Amino acid sequence: MVYETYSPEETAQLGRKIAQELKPGSICALSGELGAGKTALAQGIADGLGITEPVCSPTFTIVQVYEGGRMPFYHFDVCRISDLEEMEEIGYEDYFYGNGFTLVEWAELIEGLMPPGHQKITIEKNLEKGFDYRRICVEP
Ligand code: ADP
Ligand code: MG
């Protein structure tokens, strides 16, 4: 399914919509260049899950855990991973195979660890269509 948004708010709104469909234990790879809007989408998803805490890019930690919503939200940003062992050290399997919803920004860097059949969301800019245009492809 392909969506087009023209503002961060519209992207967050799509996130809220996506959140309605999420089941505990699901995991999603979120791809797109820096500034694409991955965190904006994650904020909408968190809001849609009923999480009231502010969600930001987990820059200094690989994973940020948000409880208090309809299910736990495990927000990974693996862009700074240099070694897959770092994933082992934080016990990633407890999240990936846990009872929450896991979202992984930059999942392409840890492709081999992503469970088979995970959902994929890709965000692309297209400057010809405007600075705030985003094309968001949601694969089941
Ligand atoms: P990422 O996590 O992919 O690096 P962020 O979500 O942190 O990206 O930042 C996206 C930036 O792009 C924000 O500054 C946001 O205001 C801006 N932006 C402009 N248009 C959009 C849009 N349609 N969707 C999402 N973000 C947008
Ligand atoms: Mg981000």
Short description:
With 140 residues, this protein is α/β, with parallel strands linked by helices. The protein has helices at residues 8-21, 38-48, 85-89, 92-96, and strands at residues 2-5, 27-31, 63-66, 73-77, 101-105, 119-125, 134-139. The mean pLDDT is 94.
List keywords for this structure.
140 residues; alpha/beta; 4 helices; binds adenosine-5'-diphosphate
How would you describe this structure to a colleague?
- Helix 1 (8-21) crosses helix 2 (38-48).
- The termini are close together.
- The protein is globular, with a radius of gyration of 14 Å.
- It has a 7-stranded mixed beta sheet.
- It has 4 helices and 7 strands; from the N terminus they run βαβαββααβββ.
- The longest helix is centred in the N-terminal third of the chain and has 14 residues, at 8-21.
- The chain has 140 residues and is of the alpha/beta class.
- It binds adenosine-5'-diphosphate and magnesium ion.
- The site of adenosine-5'-diphosphate has 17 residues, from helix 1 and helix 2.
Rg value: 14 Å
Give the fraction of residues assigned to helices.
25-40%
Largest sheet entry? 7 strands, mixed
Strand content: 25-35%
Q: Total helix count?
A: 4
Low-confidence stretches: none
Order of helices and strands: EHEHEEHHEEE
Shape estimate: globular
Ligands bound, unique: adenosine-5'-diphosphate, magnesium ion
How many β strands by DSSP? Answer: 7
